[in-house]
Amino acid sequence: MGKPNYIVIHHSATPDQKSRDWTAITRFHTSFRQGGNIISPNRAAELRAAGTKGIESPWPYVGYNSGIEEIDGKIEFLTGHAIGLQGYHCKHANMNSQSIGICIVGNFDLAPPSMTKLNFLRDLCYSYMVNYKIPASNIIGHRDAGLMIGLDWRKGEFKTCPGKLFPLQTFKDYMTGKTTTI
Q: At residue 3, does pLDDT exceed 80?
């Protein structure tokens, strides 16, 4: 992977348990999976031998470069794989090879993220923008990658990530200077 050109924002699509969800996210990414569920290596081998399609292999590390989790009212910055290594957070529009993936723990289809999370995300994005010379206009949601390849999350054709209630346009407007508040 070369220099990142985008920042892709995700949500975990799981409720924030107010505990260490990043451990579960990492375990999911680094395990065999079928239909969104973790399966054992032996079960994966059995299913593949039987010709079952859709068995996902483990990734070498968590798919995101970083994460944000709120535990007991405090934000924790979570480290994922190193920037510069091949990502596993957004295969569409070639984003895995040209972006930084940030996952915010929570399901923002059900409730919006807290201002605490949004403020931390703002600061983290600024840091990545400065360090990697990424323009604010290149901060996108995972769902934007779907739009780039012609799939519309509003029509159910793609993921809603970072969630229907994530204020993505407002956040992008703030980061580009079009508004002064998130």
A: yes
